[in-house]
Structure formats: C-alpha cells, structure tokens
Amino acid sequence: MHLITAKTRLSPNVTRLDVQAPRIAEIRRAGQFVIVRRGEGAERIPLTIADSDPAAGTITLVIQAVGKSTRDLVALEPGEAIRDIAGPLGHPTELITAGRALCIGGGVGTAVVHPIAQALARAGVNVTSIVGGRSREWVILEAELRRCGDVVVCTDDGSYGRKGFVTEAATDYLKSGRCDIVYAVGPVPMMRAVANLTRPLGVRTIVSLNPLMVDGTGMCGGCRVSVDGKALFACVDGPEFDGHRVDFDLLAERQTTYREFEQAAAARPDHDCRIGLGQR
Amino acid sequence: MHPQRLTPKERLQLSRQVMPAQDAAQRRANFAEVNLGLPETLALIEADRCLQCKNPRCMLGCPVNVNIPRFLELLSQGRLPEAARSLLHDNALPAITGRVCPQEIQCECECIRAKKGESVAVGHLERFVADWARAHPEAVPVLTAPPSGRRVAIVGSGPAGLTAAGELARNGHDVTVYEALHRPGGVLVYGIPEFRLPKQIVDQEIDRLRQAGVKIECNVVIGRTYTVPELRARFDAVFIANGAGLPAFMNIPGENLKGVYTANEYLTRVNLMAAFAPDADTPVLRPRCAVIVGGGNVAMDAARTARRLGAERVVIAYRRTKAEMPARVEEVHHAEEEGIDFELLCAPLEILGTDRKWVRGLRCVRMQLGEPDASGRRRPVPIPDSEFVIECDMVVSALGTRANPLLTATCRDLKLNERGNIEVDENGLTSMPGVFAGGDIVRGAATVILAMGDGKRAAIAIERYLLETKA
Ligand SMILES: Cc1cc2nc3c(=O)[nH]c(=O)nc-3n(C[C@H](O)[C@H](O)[C@H](O)COP(=O)(O)OP(=O)(O)OC[C@H]3O[C@@H](n4cnc5c(N)ncnc54)[C@H](O)[C@@H]3O)c2cc1C
Ligand SMILES: Cc1cc2nc3c(=O)[nH]c(=O)nc-3n(C[C@H](O)[C@H](O)[C@H](O)COP(=O)(O)OP(=O)(O)OC[C@H]3O[C@@H](n4cnc5c(N)ncnc54)[C@H](O)[C@@H]3O)c2cc1C
Ligand code: SF4
Ligand code: SF4
Ligand code: FES
Prior knowledge:
The structure holds 2 protein chains of 2 kinds. By secondary structure, chain A is of the alpha/beta class. Chain A folds into 2 domains: 2-89, Beta Barrel (Elongation Factor Tu (Ef-tu), domain 3); 100-208, 3-Layer(aba) Sandwich (Rossmann fold). In chain A, 27% of the residues lie in helices and 32% in strands. In chain A, helix 4 links the parallel strand 10 (126-133) and strand 11 (149-155). The longest helix of chain A is centred in the middle third of the chain and has 14 residues, at 109-122. The radius of gyration of chain A is 18 Å and the shape is globular. The two termini of chain A are 35 Å apart. By secondary structure, chain B is α/β, with parallel strands linked by helices. Chain B folds into 3 domains: 8-139, Fumarate Reductase Iron-sulfur Protein, Chain B, domain 2 (Orthogonal Bundle), CATH 1.10.1060; 151-245 and 402-468, 3-Layer(bba) Sandwich (FAD/NAD(P)-binding domain); 249-399, 3-Layer(bba) Sandwich (FAD/NAD(P)-binding domain). Helix content of chain B is 35%, strand content 16%. Chain B has 19 helices and 13 strands. In chain B, the strands form 3 sheets. Chain B has a 5-stranded parallel sheet, sandwiched between helices. In chain B, strand 10 and strand 11 form a beta hairpin. In chain B, helix 3 crosses helix 9 (122-135) and helix 5 runs antiparallel to helix 6. Chain B is globular, with a radius of gyration of 23 Å. The model of chain B has no long low-confidence stretch (mean pLDDT 94). At the A-B interface, helix 1, strand 8 and helix 8 of A face helix 14 of B. One flavin-adenine dinucleotide (FAD) is lined by residues 33, 43, 45-48, 62-64, 66-70, 108, 111-112, 210-213, 239, 255-256, 259, 262, 265 of chain A. One flavin-adenine dinucleotide binds at residues 33, 43, 45-48, 62-64, 66-70, 108, 111-112, 210-213, 239, 255-256, 259, 262, 265 of chain A.
C-alpha cells in the first residue's frame, strides 16, 4: 500500500499526486516510469515518475484523467492509498552533459519532460522548454520548468504565451542557434511533427512512447513498437526512442485497440460501470 | 477398518477409473474447473490397481521421484492423513502437479500396467490426496524449525521459487520472495487458466508458505527495483527463478495488426487481470473467430479461453501432426471435446488486415513431414502451391517463450548460454558465489514439476552453502 501524501490540481484534467514509494524515490532516474494498480481488480497502468523526494520517500505522479483507470486514480485523496506500484521501469533517459537542449512537452507530456529538463539542468546543460496547452488553464508545470531554464508557453487559443502549436515555437528555436538534442513528449501527432521538423536538420530527437502496457517487464509483448523496422518493447527497450526511427502510424493505430471498450466505459453515466462486455 | 488386501490378480482385473468432468457443452461457456476430481470410492479402487511393484518404474518417470507406491498403498488402505504426509514429503505442490503434470510422458508412461492396458491414474490420485490434504490442513501441519538467522532472497514466485522458499523456510531460514507482478504464483496464476488450475489452489499454497514464515514482496522487479548484486549484499544466498517470460513471435508480416496477441498477453489479460469477468477493468478482445498458432499447452489454453469468451470458431494451427503436439494429451482431448478445430500440417505465412488495421485472416501454407531434424522429429516442409486463408478476427501466437533479459542484463557476472538462459552446475549454482538459479530461466520453457525439482535441489545446495559459510 502506498499512501498519498499530497494532491494538487494542475489543470482541469491533470492532477498531481505525491505517493509514498521510498525505494523508487531513492533510485529512480529521469525517463523511468511505474506501473500502478489502484486497487483490487483495477487495471495496471503505466505512469511516468515526474519527480521524487528521496528524503520524504515520495514520488510524484502527474495524471491526466482520460478514462476509467486514470479517473479512479485522481479521485483518491491524501490519506488514501494506491495498492500496487512497481518500478522504476524502463531505461533512464539518454542525457547530454553539456551544450544546448530543447525539451518539448505537449499536454501531460510536460510531466514526462520535466524530470528530463531537471536532470539536464543539473548536469549544466542549457535547457529551453516549450510547453503547450489548449489555453492558459491547461498549461502545467511552467514554474517548475523555469527552474531548469527558459520556457516558451504556447496555447492553441493564444490566451497565454504565444498562440499556436509547440512545433512553431520549436522551429523558431531551432533557427535561432545550435541545438544538440531535442526531447519531445506528448500526443503522437505532436511527437511525429517534431521528429519531422528535426530530421532534415539532423538534430537528435528523443521521444517517449506510450503504447498500451500490461506487465511492464517484457513478458507480454503488448507494448511492442516498431523502431527502424524492428519490433521493440517500449517497457524494457524504451520508453524513449530515437524519434527519427519510430513508426508513429503504428503506435497511433495500436493505441486505438480498445477504443470501443473505453468509449463504452466513458459513456456510461455511472462512474462505477466497468468495461469488458462490449464487442468491437 | 483396513480393507482386505487384494491379490495381484484381483488388482489386475480392475480397470482404470474415469475422471468425472464437466459436460463439454456446458463448460464451453464457463471458467470453472473441467475435471471434477475422483470421488473417494473410485479413488480407492484406482489406488488398488497399483501392483506395489518391488522396482516401481513409475518413480523413475517422475522428475522428483515421488514415492508413488507408498502413497497409493496408504490411500488404498484409507489411511489418508498418512498418504497426504507421504505425498507432501516428496512433492510440495501436489494439488498443482496432480492437475498439470504431463503424466502420460512421466510417471504414468513408465507404470508397468501401461505395458498391457492402462497405467494407474497416478496424476488423478495425486490430485485426490492433495485435495483431501487441502480440506484437512490440520492433518498436515506446517513444519518449522527454530530461526537460523540466515537470510535467503528468492527472485520469482513461480513453482521453482515457491518450492525453494518452502524448503528453506522449513529449515528456519528467513526467506523473502520478490515478485515483479502484483500477485504471486508465476505462470500458475498468469498463464494456466482457471478451468485447469483454480487460482484458489495456488493462493492456498502461498498462504501455507506465509504461515511458514516466508515473506513475499510483490511489485519488486529485480534488475530494476534492486539488482542481483544488491540482493547478494543483503542476503546470505540468492535463488533466481524468474521464469522464461519473453514471448516468441512468428516473424511474419502483419504481427502488429490489432487483434494479434501473444499467448502471454492474451492469457495474462484473462487470468491475472480477470478480463473474463464482464465487469473487469482490463479489456480483452472478443473475436468471432480466433486462430491460435502452436501446439503446446499454451496453445490449448489460449484456444479454450477464446472458446469460453464466446468465439464462434476457434482454430489451432500447427505445423506438424497431432502425434507431435507437445501439449498434454488430456488438454488436446478436452479441446477437441469443446469443439476446437485443428488445422494440422499448417504453417502461417502472413496475417492479413483490414484497411483499419484489424486482423481479417491468416494466410497459411500446407506442410508435409520430411526427414527427421536434430530433435529427431520429422521436419515439416511446405507443399508448393498449397496456400490458403483462414478467415478470422484474432490471431494468438503461442510459440513458446524465451529467457527474459531484464534481470540478467543488469548482472553481467552471471554466465549465460547462447540462448540467454542462466548456466548452472548440477546443484543449481550459477557463476556467482552464493547465487543459484532454476526453473525456466535455466531450462527454457519446461514444466512445473521440473521447475519444482530445481527449486528443491537448489534449496538443498543453499542449505549446504549456508553451513559452509557459517560465521
Ligand atoms: C511509459 C508510459 C508513461 C506514461 N506516463 C503518463 C503520465 O505520466 N501521466 C499520464 O497521465 N499518462 C501517462 N501515460 C498514459 C497512461 O498510461 C494512460 O493514459 C492510461 O493508461 C489510460 O488509462 P484509462 O483507463 O484512464 O483510459 P482508457 O479508458 O484506457 O483510455 C482513454 C483514452 O486514452 C487513450 N489512451 C489509453 N492508453 C493510452 C496510452 N498509453 N497513451 C496515450 N493514450 C492512451 C485511449 O486511446 C482513449 O482515447 C503513460 C503511458 C506510458 C506507456
Ligand atoms: C499457458 C501455459 C501453460 C502451461 N501449462 C503447463 C502444464 O500444463 N504443465 C506443466 O508442467 N507446465 C506447463 N507450463 C509450463 C510451466 O508453467 C513452467 O515451466 C513453470 O511455471 C516454470 O516455473 P518457474 O518457477 O521457472 O517460472 P514462472 O512460473 O515463469 O515464474 C516466474 C516468476 O518470476 C517473476 N519474475 C520474472 N522476472 C522477474 C524479475 N525480474 N523480478 C522479480 N520477479 C520476476 C514472474 O512474474 C513470475 O511470477 C505452462 C506454461 C504456460 C505459459
Ligand atoms: S509429480 Fe507429476 S510426474 Fe511425479 S508422480 Fe506426481 S503427477 Fe507424476
Ligand atoms: S509402476 Fe504402476 S503398478 Fe507399479 S508401483 Fe508404480 S504405479 Fe504401481
Ligand atoms: S508491457 Fe508487457 S511486454 Fe511491455
């Protein structure tokens, strides 16, 4: 059992939970994730370790409520507990130790980018972050990222920062000078667009993939992604890969496997309704 | 109260008692256990069929040398507590092995009575005695020794890890089992379905271990949460039994289509995550027609699971013939009874998809058996111009598993063979002092009883190692 010690709402559908998990807090590194199971009968879902406080023995999860499992998780209150947390899983981020790095976060992907920016800044790298959101209230972790370097905020409606997509801001940044590496995490279309932007420039681009997962240990093969035409398991070989070699179409396609189950679960007014009955 | 002993001639006249089973038409739609268990009267008759051989060949066929004639003799005399203690002395998990051992190639295959007619139903009787023991825990008390002050870490809670944990705890050692998943049991809970091995049995065995003082820590992934060298530093000895959890793929086009599962994923969703229940949080696809590629227990389990989840047609596609299928004979038989179709001498070439990337069929080629290969089995070769398509909306690859590198990649001192399995000596000792290994991570995908045998052997070797290294 993992006690929730704090809860903060970061945007209309993104919530930060600080949870007790001392061993993971002690050893986790940027880029790693945990598999969380809220309680008996719940799904196992992967969530990035957004931050940790080894002294307090807590890790930070930043959760976007998109479906049943994530909604159930963010419904928990401090003092309640998460039943199972396994990790830290996945490879730590490949970090540079000098030079200039661009970190791009779209939506809840900002939470995945934050520990990377943190680690880079600690190593002395010049970090610029570009974060995007629908409008002002959807932008998360801006203050935290400012501690790591410059931040450019983009909103779709221009209600805050610059109007437009993160890729536009990224284009300007890439024109403005040297860039040694780009980290991009967000929805698949965003990661694909960033990879397409940096490929002709030859700038190394790391993306963090989020296929469906079950065990997170390489046992089931459900999280397979195609990188350079090779089937790799995001949970053990990733989750971060060279964005220029990833088959994003396949990733996007496979993410929709259970869409009808998910929609059926989401459409039911009763929050406790479960998926599983539906046919596709 | 002991019944009159039968003469050998009378024993020979008894024919093999039939295991009652749930009706095939009924069980196709439920996950309850198929075999119902012998009633006591039939079990006693069946035990009487044993000739009490002076040189019991059956024991040679059993990988852990269960003293079969002894427990059968006690059973036939109705001395159940003693029969149970005898059996449990030799085999820590008889309720499990009695259900899943491939008896027809082990104990029962060597039974003298198999020469002329039918072997003694050792597996069914093992199950009977074990189930009696489960219902009468007071008759088989959990034995414990005074604390030895020595600590042993075990990686993985499958049959190998559980057996070693039990043996070591019985000798008073402080044992901690680390399990990557949220529930202990290994393949017994995530792979083998409820209708063959009720999970309650595995839970009960795990409870017994806990009573004996074994600590089980779930959600700890060795290689990530801790490494083997870290465990080695904190414990007096380590036993690695992390199984062979890495799925093999067919390496044909279309394997990334939606509706293609590895058997590991399919069975884990249904068993461990209980996706068979209509109100489960974890989804699983419900196809109209499922094709399962493979011929082992894993393939049978996946096929019979798909049947129970409502597939109208379920096909097992296998490269060779039924005679070469590695599955337990009983599983093949049960699958046939449940109306599973067998496409034999059939190899997959390509999974066909719709434009929305869902599976729509499996293109196959007909095979014939050619010259024997290195394994002595006749090698299947494709017949030219014999391609055909099986229309389906789900494909499950059940081609076996390989060594998962997650743990070994973080422990370079462990010597591996070319297939990635950990190398051990005859005592289960690895290339690292104080670190032992057994089960599927050493053997490649094998069986429950072989994994248990490894657990027991390693426990004995660890015992010796602890004595030698005593401060
Ligand atoms: C390595 C990794 C790290 C992750 N880190 C985070 C994190 O830090 N914070 C966070 O909020 N989420 C993270 N995710 C995504 C998160 O695991 C999913 O959002 C979650 O599993 C959805 O479960 P659900 O039952 O709430 O939604 P569902 O009902 O399963 O899905 C609802 C909607 O979300 C989409 N969806 C489902 N699974 C995913 C997925 N894996 N990725 C993208 N979309 C998905 C569905 O297509 C559907 O539209 C991560 C995923 C991976 C693989
Ligand atoms: C579907 C299926 C059906 C089968 N049917 C039969 C049958 O009928 N009869 C038979 O005899 N055999 C059968 N087998 C084979 C048998 O189940 C295995 O040979 C046996 O379970 C191997 O035992 P084990 O203890 O070595 O490993 P496993 O049972 O695989 O257990 C290993 C455990 O270690 C855990 N683990 C893995 N990596 C780590 C890590 N890094 N850190 C911590 N924990 C870890 C795993 O989660 C797992 O719980 C079947 C196998 C499958 C998959
Ligand atoms: S453990 Fe398996 S092989 Fe040995 S006697 Fe029991 S059923 Fe037969
Ligand atoms: S070989 Fe058969 S008949 Fe002989 S002791 Fe074993 S089980 Fe009994
Ligand atoms: S989640 Fe099962 S192999 Fe990656």
